[in-house]
Design a protein that fits this description.
Blueprint (H helix, E strand, L loop, with lengths): L1 E8 L4 H10 L4 E4 L6 H6 L1 H18 L15 H12 L1 H10 L4 E4 L2 E6 L2 E5 L7 E10 L3 E3 L7 H4 L4 H4 L11 E5 L3 H12 L3 E5 L11 H13 L3 E3 L2 E8 L4 E7 L5 E6 L1 E4 L3 E3 L32 E3 L10 H17 L13 E3 L5 E5 L2 H7 L4 E6 L4 H5 L11 E6 L5 E7 L3 H17 L10 H10 L7 H4 L9 H5 L10
Parallel strand pairs: 1-2, 1-6, 2-3, 6-16, 8-9, 8-14, 9-10
Antiparallel strand pairs: 4-5, 5-6, 7-15, 11-12, 12-13, 17-18, 18-21, 19-20, 20-21
Helix pairs in contact: 1-10, 3-4, 3-8
Amino acid sequence: MKDYDIVVIGSGAGLMVLEEALNHGLNCAMIEKAKLGGTCLNKGCIPSKMLVYPADLVREIEASNKVGINTGQPKVDWDTVSRRMWEQINFHQKIEENLQHIPNLTLYKGAGTFTGPDSMAVHYGDGRPDDIICGKKFVIAAGARTFIPAVEGLENAGHVTSETFFGEKFPKRPWKSLVLIGGGAISAEFAHIFSAFGTKVTVIERSGRILSKEEPEISEFIAKQFAKNGVDVLTDNSVVSVSQDRSMKYVTVENALTKIKTTVACEEIFVASGVRSNADFLSLDKAGVKVDQRGWITTNSYLETSRENIWALGDINGKYQFRHKANHEAQVLIQNLFGGEGKKEVSYDSVPWTIFTHPQVAHVGMTEKELKDKGIPYHTAKNHYSEVVGGRAMGYRDGDGDNGFVKMLVGENKKILGVHIVGPQASVLLQPFVYLMNEGYQCGKKPRQVANAKQIDGLRILCPQIGTYAPINDSMVIHPSLNELTAWVFEKLDRKE
């Protein structure tokens, strides 16, 4: 049995905590049963964007006649697109190689389960005996996996998830037809990707609209763009059964309103109906770590679990499934474990995200419905791309079906409560508002007017972040997006004495 100062389970954002622990000279263990790098690198945001960008180019080329550039239909080189994607995923090999040669670190390539509050067994599943290890501290960053609905015939017919798509079921060519089960972010991105690459796509969503976490007008906007691009969207429909023959798969759905059943034929089925926690793999009951009713590990604002010296971050705590959120939590936990400057709390008040469909959808803060439900007074503002010269230069005009917009929700004291964008480069347009919102939460008291530099200096007594890059450093930055280019530049500052 080996003893460690800290044991990290999961190699996504958990790697950030591990690196800092090693920098402090601690004896560390990393447990990872899959490829190093976590969901984002291997089966999520990074490889998917290697497919999204070519799909974006297809749609931009198709629309270029709006600005006087006439081209033929783009031809997709699937082999090149695929090769670029796999080059990104294969970075996990370099991560593993580097970890194997780091002093004070043992890498366990297996599945960990708790055997007590300070011990864990590592299972390999290949005939090797389990390793039993002990740790003074544990950091759980073991992520989540696709939720597979209980549908008659689905397992027999076979299906794809984001895990298997970026693995053994990656297609040698774009499918001729595809059914996506679910109408959330993952579904919207893959609907965009494959429809641009020539696949006939059908999206099945059991609720009344796709992208149900977004503003209703944004959901409607994306649905109309999907229809324009040949994507069928079946809302208020639940999958009741799946069957297959030698050449096709058949998905039978029932409309919740009309009770009419419809069968959709397709070459492949992609399940994108949400995610579930991986906490059930960890035998948390033996460590005394509590989970909520949905199986997510319960954490407080310091990322502490119900058991002392065990923390959880990332997807597995159920608080937003975004890599930039996990990165932010890792930075907070690093401060709390190694900073020596007092505890820092995680704030989820300004969590941004982008759905990289076509066009992009970006979101930070509350929706209009949330404000109404909470009784918060607010004002709304909306500006369309066609209302600015930059948008008109891109070919957007009043009344066009693809004329995206920014929707702003503002409190009575001018506080930004929510920002919602649908259109080109929505992720980049959103990020400045994230910084502003984060600076606002940090600085609770500020005079309304500032006349000169002396007054600014005085304000810094109340809010040292004013005029600095601190709000940028402390904000979540949408991943992956071009915002990271400017946000991360501060990490390279010359720190000469």
